[in-house]
Write a structure and sequence with these properties.
Blueprint lengths: L8 E7 L2 E7 L16 E3 L5 E3 L4 E2 L8
Antiparallel strand pairs: 1-2, 3-4, 4-5
């Protein structure tokens, strides 16, 4: 662990003959610039999809009589 980080808690566990160690630490959040534009997609019932930008895609249904 880095010198300036101290663990809040440490958990040691054993599952299926394997040992695991997990550390809980508290850090100060840092804002970073996005390197890639990201858009979320919500698939729905009223519209086929709605993007986090607000753009909506309507469902085009084809029915065979």
């Amino acid at each position: 662990m880095p010198d300036n980080i101290s663990p809040k808690s440490v958990t040691i566990s054993k599952k299926a003959d394997r040992w695991f160690v997990s550390f809980k630490v508290e850090t100060i959040p840092q804002n970073t610039d996005k390197s890639v534009d990201v858009v979320g997609v919500d698939l729905g019932i009223k519209s086929l999809a709605t993007l986090s930008t607000g753009e909506m895609f309507v469902c085009v249904c084809f029915r065979i009589p």
